[in-house]
Amino acid sequence: PAPESEPETKAVANLCEAELFRYAFCLTVGGEKIYWSEQKGNLSETAMMAKVLSSVSGYPLCRKEEKERLGSFCEWFGAQHRRPAFEVSLRGQESAPLEDFNFLYNRFEEMLTLGAIM
After folding, report:
1. Which keywords does UniProt give here (predicted)?
2. Domain carrying residue 82
3. Per DSSP, what are the bridge partners of residue 88?
4. CA-to-CA distance for 47 and 3, rounded, in angstroms?
5. How many domains are there within the chain?
6. Which residues touch 4 (CB under 8 Å, ≥6 apart)?
7. Are 29 and 94 in contact (CB under 8 A)?
């Protein structure tokens, strides 16, 4: 499929265009780490935010290989809007059961709060 060829991706792209968000968070599973979009034009701000998020969460900062970034919302958002974007992997490789929601939310809540004031 082409970019924005599906209704849900088109809806998210339109929302990002209309609202002009300051940054984006993508939540995934995959090993308690933070990936960040390194787009020209916002590198120093993004690097500073990434370091703060890593510090409060204890999650290491990681970089994805080029092929892993293709099609990523965070990479698209960073490139399209020249704003910070972060993919936060909240736990191991397996999906989180619903019973873990409060635990995962509590892990992410401080990052969201800091993101709102940075």
Report:
1. Carboxypeptidase, Hydrolase, Protease
2. 23-117
3. 27, 34
4. 27
5. 1
6. 10, 13
7. yes
Is residue 54 situated within a structural domain? yes
Cβ neighbour number for residue 87 with a 10 Å cutoff: 22
Does some domain include residue 17? no
Residues 2-52: pLDDT tens digits? Answer: 778 899 999 999 999 999 899 999 888 778 889 887 766 667 888 899 999
* Distance, CA of 52 to CA of 112 (rounded, Å): 12
Token pair 């080029």 is at which residue? 66
Q: Is residue 93 part of a domain?
A: yes
Query: CA-CA distance, 73 to 53, in Å (whole number)?
Result: 19
